[in-house]
Amino acid sequence: MSPNKKPIESLKLNNGLSIPNVALGTWKASPDDCYNSVMTALKSGYTHIDTARIYRNEVSVGRAVNDFLKQSHLKREDLFITTKISPFEFQDPENAILDSLERLQLDYVDLYLMHHCVAEVTGEGITPRDENGFRKHISPEVFSYVDAYRLLQNLVAKGYTKSIGICNINSPKIQRLLETKDLIPPAVVQCEIHPYLPQHELVEFCKANNIVVESYSPLGSTGAPLLQDSVIVEIAQKYGVTPACVAISWAVARGTVVLPKSTTAQRIKENMFLIELDEEDVNLIGSIYKRMTKRYLEPKWKINVYDSDADFNPLT
Ligand SMILES: NC(=O)c1ccc[n+]([C@@H]2O[C@H](COP(=O)([O-])OP(=O)(O)OC[C@H]3O[C@@H](n4cnc5c(N)ncnc54)[C@H](OP(=O)(O)O)[C@@H]3O)[C@@H](O)[C@H]2O)c1
């Protein structure tokens, strides 16, 4: 079967702006690797880069973006740069974004995401931990993710970010934001989503509420374990493409933005190659979780931050 190649497309956000549906992920990319991979990505045609305060590579992302813009006919507004506020910064988002912009050497970001739905104590480093290694959170009764989000929205009015959103959230928590008076609805929700954790309920909920979903760890995170899955391998053989192409194209077929990370030049280029999957294959990949469900990322908190998602509930 010869594959039907698909281009990277832009999706409309609920504030009228657009977001490219494939981004380069940069988590765990060391500063040098990060500079090279962002440069490779931009030169290859990516226009969307995903970083975060906690990845400690915003300086490299910014250097690569600015160096690229000097050499290219593209302008800053042709690129889409996302960074994330860390939980230890939630109580002072203006300082946090100004620090990120300084590291990035940019006047604004396109998307500023709350990295989690729980705030952490300030003044004890980037990932404050107790003696048992648990991240030190602030009780949601004292300062909740809604309180943090309320402060974040002022950054749009100030022009530091074009859009805001939240990571690692579930539908009931989004519903609470949507029902809270005087809050801008999140433009984007970024969560772990892949064939072992398809989060069907969350994706449908966001679609119904006009929120763009971003699928992180689309290959199963470090080492790309999903690429060994027998169904994905079989579908890749059927279309004559790589398993990575199938996993990434599946995320796109569901209408989500996908964020594959690589620091390998050839893979960065490969991960832009999208195909049109038949509906039956999209559904088949979407049912793999019935055989195998796995969440790859679970930060160590004393409270459960991933509660009540229909597809996966670590408490039950
Ligand atoms: N908001 C959040 O809390 C959060 C959490 C996790 C991730 N994210 C974002 O989502 C991005 C992606 O998630 P992720 O980094 O966890 O994992 P991922 O993209 O699912 O997988 C990355 C791994 O796959 C390998 N890989 C990439 N392309 C490949 C290919 N074509 N063939 C074979 N192996 C390939 C990479 O190796 P090499 O690099 O060695 O090539 C790396 O080991 C992150 O980088 C970050 O930007 C956000």
TrEMBL record:
The keyword Oxidoreductase applies. It catalyses: isatin + NADPH + H(+) = 3-hydroxyindolin-2-one + NADP(+); (R)-pantolactone + NADP(+) = 2-dehydropantolactone + NADPH + H(+). CDD domains: AKR_AKR1-5-like. Its EC number is 1.1.1.358. GO terms for molecular function: 2-dehydropantolactone reductase (A-specific) activity. Residues 23-289 form the NADP-dependent oxidoreductase domain. InterPro entries: AKR, Aldo/ket_reductase_CS, NAD(P)_OxRdtase_dom_sf, NADP_OxRdtase_dom. The record marks 84 as: Lowers pKa of active site Tyr. The active site is at 55 (proton donor). Gene3D superfamilies: NADP-dependent oxidoreductase domain. Substrate binds at residue 115. One of its GO terms (biological process) is ketone metabolic process. It comes from the Eukaryota. Keywords: Oxidoreductase. The keyword Disulfide bond does not apply. This is 2-dehydropantolactone reductase. It comes from Ogataea philodendri.
